[in-house]
Amino acid sequence: MPYFTRARTKAVRGIIRPDFEYEEQVMNLPLREIAGVLIATVSGRIDHASANAFNSALEPLLKNCVGGAKPLILDFSGVEYISSVGLRSLMLASRQAKSQKGAFAIAGMQPSVQEVFTISRFSLIMPCYTSVEAACKVLGS
Amino acid sequence: MKKVIFWGTRGSLPVALTADDVRQKIVAALNAANGKTFRNSALLNEFVDTLPFATRGSFGGHSSCVEIVSGGHEHVICDMGSGARPLGQSKIATYGAPNPQTYHIFISHLHWDHLMGFPYFTPMYLPGNRIIVHGCHPHIEAAFRLQMTAPCFPVDYSQAGAKIEFDIMTPGQTQYIAGLNVTPKLQLHAGDSYGYRFDSIDRSVVYSTDSEHKLESLEEREGFVKFFAKADLVIFDAMYSLAEAVSVKADWGHSSNMVGVELCQSAKAKRLALFHHEPMHDDNQLLRLFTETRRLEEITRHGHDPLEVISAYDGLTVNL
Q1: Which end of chain B has fewer CB atoms at under 10 Å, N or C?
Q2: Of A83, A115, A125, the CB nearest to B295
Q3: What are the mean pLDDT values of chain B's consecutive 10-residue runs (320 residues total)?
Q4: Nearest residue of A to residue B298 by CA position?
Q5: Which of B288, B266, B263, B141 is nearest to B211 (CA)?
Q6: Residues of A in contact with B262 (CB under 8 A)
Q7: Which residues constitute the domain of residue A118?
Q8: CATH number of the domain bearing residue A113
């Protein structure tokens, strides 16, 4: 598993919810480099339960996704499901990279995840590639 | 509750088919017929039923107006968009003018597309009728009067023959109205909007339109999951794609088909009606959205009970 969970009952964003079991997750995004492109591997589900962990894991990578730096590709081949919250995270990430003049893209989505991108019309606003190799060919040095 | 009738399903502004739209439907139907002949009208109608909805029908163009048939003697209506005109005519045709009726009208908010049908709602001119307008906006009566004040409309509000009353409800507080438990909920929209949950002994319907969902708020999400919980029908503002709703049209006060599916799945609702259709979308685009939303529900079901997805159109009756 690319991330682990620990369940706890606590205040979430200042809201006390003693009867709600909130799972705080930590997500790892293993990194590799191909042809001068940084590739972060994302796995599992990105939904309301894991979106914060995904955002936190992505944050340091995005910080370095600036003009002149190595392009950042998210390898989505291990992602089984992405919800609206996860898509929103991607939109914000893409927006941040663009504002920093960095290159950012998603690659290798499973067919069902690709369908979600199409239905949500995120395929129209996010740079997406069929595979990591295809993305590297375009974005790599 | 017995059924829900959609009298107006279009968002923001009423629309109408153009001559070219009708021509395209005729051409598509004739192409599909491909020279077939039909011995009688029953066979012809059978063929028409096989055509895509965008060819044989239309989603319609009236703005928001939905009737909930409670099974009691009093009428329950959500919003007074332009669909209120055919609704009013239908009531007059059914009950006749000299047969006083009571109408409960629940108003989501005071924007014109949700009020514009009231001056054309014939029962409001007939003495003996009683109309109770329910809503959470404190100035709801002023908004009703304003649109029937010169120069906005030729007939002044004072010309109403029916007895019109206003009931200011409190979000979160359930009231027993026309045999139903009705609970309003505050929604995110410019000037605020309110959704309504209607519960009878064995059925629940949620009317939730003109409502934007901020995806980052867990508290908001849980509030709506609770509001939609196990509803037989959720009527949901699906005006935009998710991409539009979180980017170029963020803060415009509307939601998407994807968020509707997710909330209804989490709430274990039985049926989702896509509603408040984007006025720029033609029938083919709306049909595509409908088909895609059904597919989305299928691929995100993950072993849960199926959520039936329908796309509301003017004239649709949903049996509960």
Answers
A1: C
A2: A115
A3: 97 97 97 96 97 97 97 96 98 92 98 98 97 98 97 96 98 98 98 98 97 92 97 97 91 96 97 98 96 96 92 98
A4: A112
A5: B263
A6: 83-84
A7: 31-139
A8: 3.30.750.24
